[in-house]
Automatic annotation (TrEMBL):
Residues 495-619 form the R13L1/DRL21-like LRR repeat region domain. It holds the Pfam family LRR_R13L1-DRL21. This is Disease resistance protein At3g14460 isoform X2. It comes from Juglans regia (English walnut). Keywords: Leucine-rich repeat, Plant defense, Repeat. The lineage of its organism: Eukaryota, Viridiplantae, Streptophyta, Embryophyta, Tracheophyta.
Length: 1068
């Protein structure tokens, strides 16, 4: 792996250079994965690791433990070629860098990590292979940037006077591209020479950067902003350096603060969008890593917002705010923590004129808690609040009635909290514009007087369990966002109320449509007139009792506007679809889903939707054939499904034939289809489209009668055949030279794989063979030389020939392979990940003699192997092994020998339900261990004083769980290292107390987690260590009885701990 540092002063173009590399398709094609992380001043390991993991998996992550994060990231990165950019690293110590880079030790050759920094010492700490120093631009290059931003085409030919002034201005930019961009954008399309001359002669150029730390060009850029943009820009000081903010959310905040001029023709949101793009055009905001909705400010621009906002905006953590200046503060933000106590916010109770209380969630992950006292105090003291955000605090289940007294409140975000009901007093907030309740899964009802919120514009109830809409919701004339509308048979607003909400836009789900009384009521919803709705879900309840007699006429009456981009029709009970479904007038439609419409006999004509890219048809049980009507053949000269990239058929229980004929056979359909899924179609017998030139992935699941030929396409790189007819397996005899990943599953009668699999060429790297119980051998005992990952599950008769060359194999997963009794590790020299699971006859791992080479293994697991008894004699020589777990191996008596010597890189050790393991090997455990989990190993726990844990100074987490009867007090003195920060203990049935000496020497302990200890009744007399910040206790009834009173001797022992959780309830 190559480490590259890009070093240079602020504003010189380090990030721009990195972006040019990162976004170049020629660069991207060399890497399997890429990730961009804006680091800024705070080098937070958890946040950076989590951001990288989310980037490479394209999924959100809620792992709160750094160790688990790193293990997961390592699994995703191993043998992958990655491009990682860490942007704006200000400071970094060597130990943090080493921890961050741990998962990257296992990436493929050719991987690159690029770090941009102003500090040359960062390049030294990271031991950069290459350090590139970004020099100042030449005057001509600086002029080129300036002219491009001052004039769209950069052409000054018609304005020689402006060019002369511009060239003098550029000289003052000190060859910094950020300065040239900012000043160029400031003067964009201004043709008055006097204005250019004012900028040239401004005294601000003479301000010493050392005095303000701000580039004069940026100060000038701010000075000449229109006043309405200045307010919006300064407000962004509320975001810390490097914070990635959402465009639409910022506009809503601006609106709440009254920064947007009153609209005439445009809406306030549209005006906010204009303001936002104006700041983008002036290079004050920049798009974050290609995401259209997320933006970030350059660190120097962030410094500018802080400089011009003075003491009116606080983005420091509350504990750092000066008590002398807080009374001036109008807007504050802070990062959410695991636990936020009243003390954290006490200083802001003096800020009587505070308008913004904004909680920021900076990818922290895990649950967060806030004492109920904080909302009560805030709402009782801060009567000028306009913005209040308390999202992601899972213990907040109610708001105080006093919220109704904060008449100024315009923005309220309590998303992803445990809120169960809203106080009726919330309906007194006549100025409220935005109410975000998304992710509040315990919320089932809204206050009945919601109609009084006459200025409400955005109501997000996504992910709630609301069963009805409040009466008269149609009176909310300003409402633009209403994510869900639920029709109740007996109570609440009827669907006709939607017709009164003429400003609706964005996403809308209409649920419980079986309760619509008639198509006339459906017409009253006026969906055809809602031209700004982009995504629509229409859903009936399959269990509804009062089913409408004619759902087709209801659906016909719910025809949306042709601007719609996405629609999903769920549980529709009609026999066919109205003509509007699939009509080519819906030219913007990109996604369409028909879900569980069980009574439909035919598919709608969808082939002429010109922009459709994603089509899912799921659970249409009565459809027997898919033919010309689906393609819409003959009605138009354009290709059918001309833009479609993703097509899924699933749970089509009576579908028999797909007629892929007509224009399709001549290449007239699906020219750009990349992925095709056919799942659970038990009666489908023949014919698949053959001419699919762009098909890259084909998945066929549970289609036992399908005997069609597979598409013959060179682009096909991934194929899954699961629980299908064996005739499809024969198709594998035909060369598929581009195949990279193949899954064969559920062919119980299959005895051998086709020999033609040897024709897969040099691409196959992932082979998965599951549930082929009769399979005895691989094709000719052959594995492609490019194969890197082999997954074999429940192939009870399959034996791995030991004479094969497994030298390319890197990942092996063996599940339910009963033919395996021993496994020779030395035949797999490059394995980095190996797992044995439910291999009932596996007894041992061996290393055939003579064998002098180390194993490359990084991760090894043995689970549910009841006969397993031994590891190789002399231990496992695996110097790179970082993760090792053994689970439910009842016969195992000992772990590998010499672990302390032979496993010097081991970081994660997990031993569970191995009742015969008595002790750790002689010599103890590797000093490199970070996390140890021991569960259900009672004999092993009995010998705990001989574990030698005290020497493990790298250990960060220890979890011990079991029913060992001898554990009455824990932890014993000298058992644990003093540096241990996290201790989890559970299921000790006889544990009565915590050992005072064992705990008190844990001077670095941060979190203590205790669960299922029914006899535990007291804490040490001396109390708990002062360093402890989180105490979590679950299912310990004797402790609960004493602590619930919040007084007395036992309470005093824990009173100093900031975060105390008792059965998930925050106690304070």
């Amino acid at each position: 792996m190559c480490l590259i540092a890009i070093v240079g002063m602020g504003g010189i173009g380090k990030t721009t250079l990195a972006q040019l590399l990162y976004n170049d398709n020629r660069v991207k094609q060399h890497f399997n994965l890429d990730a961009w992380v804006c680091v800024s001043k705070e080098f937070d390991l958890h946040t950076i690791t989590k951001t990288i993991l989310e980037a490479v998996t394209s999924a959100t992550c809620d792992i709160k433990d750094l160790n688990r994060l790193q293990v997961t990231l390592k699994e995703k990165l191993t043998e992958k070629k990655i491009l990682l950019v860490l942007d704006e690293v200000w400071n970094m110590n060597y130990s943090d860098w080493e921890i961050l880079m741990n998962p990257f030790k296992f990436v493929a050759q050719g991987s690159r990590v690029i770090v941009t920094t102003r500090d040359d010492s960062v390049a030294s700490v990271m031991r950069a292979n290459v350090t590139h120093y970004v020099k100042k631009l030449s005057e001509e290059d600086c002029w080129s940037i300036f002219s491009k931003h001052a004039f769209h085409d950069g052409n000054f030919d018609a304005y020689p006077e402006l060019e002369a002034l511009g060239r003098q201005i550029v000289k003052k930019c000190e060859s910094l591209p950020l300065a040239a961009k900012a000043i160029g954008a400031l003067l964009r399309s201004k043709l008055d020479a006097d204005e250019w001359d004012k900028v040239l002669k401004s005294e601000l150029w003479d301000l010493p950067v050392e005095a303000t730390s701000i580039l004069p060009a940026l100060i000038l850029s701010y000075k000449y902003l229109p006043s309405h943009l200045k307010r919006c820009f300064v407000y962004c000081s509320i975001f810390p350096k490097g914070y990635i903010f959402d465009k639409n959310q910022l506009i809503l905040l601006w609106m709440a603060e009254g920064f947007l001029q009153q609209p005439r023709i445009k809406t306030m949101e549209e005006i906010g969008d204009d303001y936002f793009m104006a700041l983008v055009s002036r290079s004050l905001f920049q798009q974050y890593s290609g995401d259209k909705s997320r933006f970030v400010m350059h660190d120097l621009v962030s410094d500018l917002t802080k400089y011009v906002s003075g003491q009116f905006i606080s983005r420091e953590e509350p504990e750092e705010v000066s008590r002398e200046t807080v009374y001036k503060t109008r807007h504050m933000s802070y990062f959410i923590s695991k636990f936020d106590s009243p003390e954290k916010f006490k200083v802001f109770y003096k800020a009587k004129r505070l308008r913004t209380f904004l909680q920021l969630n900076f990818s922290r992950g895990g649950d967060s808690y806030l004492t109920k006292k904080v909302p009560h105090d805030l709402l009782g003291m801060l009567r000028y609040l306009r913005v209040l955000s308390l999202s992601y605090y899972i213990n907040i289940n109610e708001l105080p009635d006093s919220i109704g007294k904060v008449k100024t409140l315009r923005y309220l975000n309590i998303s992803f909290t445990g809120i169960r009901r809203l106080p009726d007093s919330i309906c007194k907030l006549c100025n409220l514009q935005t109410l975000n309740l998304s992710g509040c899964k315990d919320l089932v009802v809204l206050p009945r007087d919601m109609w009084k919120l006459i200025n409400l514009r955005h109501l997000d109830i996504t992910g709630t369990c609301i069963m009805e809409m409040p009466m008269q919701i149609g009176r909310l004339k300003c409402l633009q966002t209403l994510t869900k509308f639920v029709i109740n048979k007996y109570n609440g607003s009827s669907i006709g109320e939607l017709g009164k909400l003429i400003n609706l836009r964005g996403n809308l789900s209409i649920l419980e449509l079986q309760n619509v009384k008639s198509h006339v009521d459906a017409l009253d919803a006026c969906l055809k007139d809602r031209k700004y709705i982009e995504e629509l879900v229409l859903e009936w309840n399959p269990n509804g009792i009062n089913i409408s007699k004619d759902q087709r006429t209801v659906l016909d009456s719910l025809q949306p506007h042709r601007n719609l981009k996405s629609i999903s029709i769920n549980y529709y009970g009609g026999q066919n679809f109205p003509d509007w479904v699939g009509h080519n007038s819906f030219s913007n439609m990109t996604s369409l889903c028909l879900y569980m419409c069980n009574n439909c006999c035919t598919l709608p004509s969808l082939g002429q939707l010109p922009s459709l890219r994603d089509l899912s048809i799921i659970g249409l049980d009565e459809v027997v054939t898919v033919g010309p009507e689906f393609y819409c053949i003959g009605s138009c000269s354009t290709k059918s499904f001309g833009a479609l990239e993703f097509l899924r058929f699933e749970k089509m229980l009576n579908w028999e034939i797909w007629f892929p004929f007509g224009v399709e056979n001549e290449g007239g359909a699906f020219p750009y289809l990349k992925e095709l899924y056919i799942d659970k179609c038990p009666k489908l017998t023949e014919r698949l489209p053959i001419h699919l030139p762009s098909l890259a992935k084909l998945v066929i699941h549970e289609c036992p009668q399908l005997m069609a030929s597979l598409p013959k396409v060179s682009a096909l790189c991934e194929l899954e055949l699961i629980d299908c007819n064996e005739a499809l397996i024969k198709e594998l005899s035909i060369p598929l030279t581009g195949m990279q990943k193949l899954t064969v599953e559920g062919f119980s009668a299959l005895e051998s794989l086709p020999e033609g699999m040897t024709n897969f060429g040099s691409c196959l790297h992932d082979l998965r063979i599951w549930r082929c119980s009769s399979l005895m051998s691989l094709p000719k005992g052959y594995l492609p030389p490019t194969l890197k990952a082999l997954w074999i599950s429940h192939c009870k008769s399959l034996e791995l020939p030991m004479h094969l060359d497994y030298s390319s194999l890197e990942k092996l997963w063996l599940h339910g392979c009963d033919s395996l009794s021993s496994f020779p590790l030395n035949l797999f020299p490059k394995l980095y990940n190996i797992t044995f699971w439910e291999c009932n006859n596996l007894e041992s791992l061996t290393v055939l003699e003579p064998h002098e080479h180390d194993l490359m293994t990084l991760r090894m697991g043995i689970s549910d192997c009841p006969s397993f008894v031994s590891f190789p004699k002399g231990g496992l020589r695996a110097p790179n092994l970082t993760s090792f777990w053994v689970d439910n191996c009842k016969s195992l008596r000992s772990l590998p020998d010499k672990m302390h010597e032979l496993l010097p890189s081991l970081q994660y050790l997990y031993i569970e339900d191995c009742p015969e393991v008595v002790s750790f090997p002689e010599g103890g455990l590797p000093l490199s261990l970070i996390s140890i989990y021991i569960r259900g190993c009672d004999k092993l726990v009995t010998s705990r004083m001989g574990w030698g844990l005290k020497k493990l100074h790298s250990l960060r987490l220890l979890e011990i769980s079991g029913k060992s009867e001898d554990v009455e007090s824990f932890p014993e003195e000298e058992l644990l290292p003093t540096t241990l920060p996290y201790l989890y203990i559970s299921k000790f049935q006889n544990l009565r107390s915590l050992d005072k000496k064992g705990l008190q020497h844990l001077t670095s302990i941060k979190q203590l987690w205790i669960c299922d200890c029914p006899k535990l009744k007291c804490m040490p007399e001396e109390g708990l260590p002062a360093s402890l910040s989180i105490l979590e206790v679950y299912h310990c009834p004797l402790l609960k009885k004493q602590w619930q009173k919040r007084k007395g001797k036992e309470w005093r022992k824990i009173a100093h701990v900031p975060c105390k959780l008792l059965d998930r309830e925050l106690i304070n």
